[in-house]
UniProtKB/TrEMBL annotation:
PROSITE patterns: PATHOGENESIS_BETVI. Belongs to the BetVI family. This is Bet v I/Major latex protein domain-containing protein. Keywords: Pathogenesis-related protein, Plant defense. One of its GO terms (molecular function) is abscisic acid binding. The keyword 4Fe-4S does not apply.
Amino acid sequence: MGVMRFEKEVSAAVAPSRMFKAFFLEAHNFLPKLVPQAIKSVEILQGDGGAGSIKITNFADGGNFKYAKHRIDELDKDNFRCKYTVIEGDMLGTILESIVYDVKFEASGNGGSICKVASEFHTK
């Protein structure tokens, strides 16, 4: 099994606390409304949404993927950080075992935020 790692930073004009809440604490309500052309629904299958929970994202019809099931590995509300693993879904194809995302929102100087994302693609 091999691992490919990618890192990326993106800035936003929204405070880290609001970004974290929208993308991790309220994703099941927020994302389908924000991007209905891409995401049909986000459901919590197991747990309360915190660490150890299992969620499923159902993508909109006509897209490249149907769904992605992921496990919340770590959820740090104080530091606006979430680590989660895609454990099932057609995005994994026949080559990938899992995809691990480590996302952290930090304050930027202008009242907005910087989103730091590390992605690890684990091959079979």
